[in-house]
Amino acid sequence: MATLTPDLDFAPWHASNRRGLAGLKKKNGGKFPTHAKKAAPAPAATKAPRMYPADDVAKPLAVNTVRKPTKLRATITPGTVLILLAGRFKGKRCICLGQLPSGLLLVTGPFKLNGVPVRRVSQAYVIATCTKVSLPNVDITMFTDSYFKAAESKRAKKGEKDFFDEPKEKKALPAEYVANQKSLDAAIMPALSADLKGYLSTRFTLRDGDRPHLMKF
């Protein structure tokens, strides 16, 4: 039976010639070009668990904070006379010896004048005065942050009986700390004038009508 369009040929080989597949096969040595198969991925070192807990398990978050050194106020320099605002020695004056790596200030009374030992204080709890003391021969290399940390000891749990026991005696300060304080006082005292000794010995107080925000320290 003759077709309605005898000039058209639908043979498969004729269609491939129109697409150029025969020429592509002939160009590559009688074979169609193929892509190389990708290498299989290596097996995972750890497999995921087949069972998961029914309840959500808290996962600790990674801490990416970077501790930056505490910026010291411009009014506080080694030798500046400070006024303590909190703690056992609040109201007393002391001398700033420097800043420790932790950001705390290293201060002392000296102890021989007003009873303030060498200690660490936050700059948020001091008032810097305009009085300066020259400290050329004072060595503070021994006073580090670890110097002030007491040895950690596990405390036993207190029961009802322990509340009625007599208070324990206060532990004596090691001789090393006493010797270091005496040597520090001996280096600072020659640099203090008679007026400055009296100034450091007196406690800072406010009277009725005083306006601390208008005072120039």
TrEMBL record:
Entry's Gene Ontology BP terms? cytoplasmic translation; ribosomal large subunit assembly
Does the record's keyword annotation contain Ribonucleoprotein? yes
**GO CC terms:** cytosolic large ribosomal subunit
User: What InterPro entries does the annotation carry?
Assistant: 60S_ribosomal_eL6, Rib_uL2_dom2, Ribosomal_eL6_KOW, Translation_prot_SH3-like_sf
Record's keyword terms, sorted = Ribonucleoprotein, Ribosomal protein
Keyword Nucleotide-binding among UniProt keywords: no
Q: Which GO terms describe its molecular function?
A: RNA binding; structural constituent of ribosome
Query: According to its UniProt record, which protein family does this protein belong to?
Result: Belongs to the eukaryotic ribosomal protein eL6 family.
Q: What is this protein called?
A: 60S ribosomal protein L6
Q: Tell me the organism.
A: Chlamydomonas euryale
